[in-house]
Amino acid sequence: MPLDPVDYHGEDEFFLCWDGTLRIELNGRESVVLNAGGIFVAPRGLMQRPVCDGTAHAS
């Protein structure tokens, strides 16, 4: 199922979760869940949507 709204970049995108929990929903793939200290690199061109159900700080 296509994601809406989505985030799309022409380059790899780096995620770092400082605290809390961040879920990154990926188009056509299983979601990635990041807890404090977790990292994920979304490959260039992969449609994704960062989601937080509570409070989280990420960059």
Mean pLDDT: 87
| Largest sheet report | 3 strands, antiparallel
Strand content: over 45%
Kindly give the count of domains: 1
Report low-confidence residues grouped into runs of 5 or more: none
Taking all Cα atoms into account, the compactness measure Rg is 11 Å
Give a count of the beta strands, DSSP E runs of length 2 or more: 6
Q: Overall 3D geometry?
A: globular
Q: What order do the strands of the largest sheet run in, or round the barrel if closed?
A: 4-1-6
Q: Structural class, please?
A: mainly beta
Tally the helices: what do you get? 0
- What is the N-to-C order of secondary-structure elements (H for helix, E for strand)? EEEEEE
Ends distance: 26 Å
Helix share of residues? under 10%
